[in-house]
């Protein structure tokens, strides 16, 4: 619930987003909180396993001291008539719609700000009235009108101001402005695209106005830029997009000692029989019951290396158990979801690119022509992924490494350049003809080609799952493609990004430069919105 999340953030503004989400999940799922009025009944013991004692007391005191009726809580974010989908009135009949208010700490002008809908184009009004998405030109005109109105109060509205406006408009007219997938699931916060358009317009109109700038001028580059980047290492990240990142309650009848004994039993079985023992029912039962212990060891501080994990939990490096762990961790059956959607969505993506052939770069056209050959039947998923990487200007070897079909794990570690972050090793003459796959992490082959992964879809699922299971950040070289896989195929849509890198290598100069970060990758959201519009029109 957005209201509850805002209430927590207002009391504990320094609390990490993952912690906020964990508390909200605990309140809603475990305690059964259904609305703001229920917060007064929450006790300190209910959330003591998630927050420190002082944080718990501050939050509980806030819940009990402030009125939280639905009406008062909602009005703190938005004061407006009912949305167009439930109202018989049109926008032209509502000259004062979307009175935008604000949460604590916002500037006073936002409290009084009103969107001037009477200045919008009639075609945009009709689209919103019908709950449809406005045409791109109408939407751009709307953004111009809104920013002009905002600048009457403040020449350079902050990102926080733009967030308040974008959030309120999206809440009022979700059918017209909400960022969502073709399955109807919200992408991130839901108003990211509109927020980006507003802020981009603000920056554009202030491009020559140095008096109203909020940022300091960019410093000239120094010789420090010529220094080589630090050695690559496998960066770790915590509970991004997970629902069961670190369980707190032991399985019935289990203790830390009993789980440790079960772990040792699996190590003994692996020592005697190797990965083929992964098919034994006993091993499956042991892996299921020791999930909490697996997460404790993976989430340890300092983070263990992938070799440490493979020694402690050798069966976790079986592709079947890795995918099973991912399902428990995120609540998403990734293997089934990709098997059901990969080729189907891949075919539609290829059709989208083919239908707009003249719009793409030369590199995309060449790859697309190769992907559409008749002998490529059954490779739509792989082809779509390669086309997307090229469209996002990310190199193929940032995700896939091609090796000879006879390559063994030892050969790969000795002769191939295996980065710290995960890579799929495709065994074959070409990526198209590869039918064996391996996974490398931290320069080591952690999942060999035997027992084999049956197809590319399974290999992609294993590759993607490894980022979540082992708490690994997306590598900068393939961050856009990985976030696309996450939001479009896996349909995991948190409000933040799984790459916090501050620097990257410039594609033009080859130097290490600062990386522009964002809560959600704007290229991914923009593409998904464009594709959904195309898919709807050609449906």
- Strands, total number: 8
Distance between the termini: 33 Å
Alpha-beta content class: mainly alpha
Low-confidence stretches: 67-106, 220-224
Tell me, briefly, the overall form.
Answer: globular
Rg, rounded, reads 26 Å
What is the share of helical residues?
Answer: 40-55%
Largest sheet, spatial ordering of strands: 3-4-5-6
Q: Taking all residues together, what is the mean pLDDT? A: 82
Instruction: Tell me about the largest β-sheet.
Output: 4 strands, mixed
Number of helices: 23
Q: Give the strand content.
A: 5-15%
* Integer tally of domains: 4
Overview features:
two-stranded antiparallel ribbon, 4 domains, mainly alpha, 539 residues, 23 helices, 8 strands
Protein architecture, described:
It is a single chain. Helices cover 47% and strands 5% of the residues. With 539 residues, it is mainly alpha-helical. The chain has a four-stranded mixed β-sheet with strand order 3-4-5-6, with helices on both faces. Strands 1-2 form a two-stranded antiparallel ribbon. It is globular.
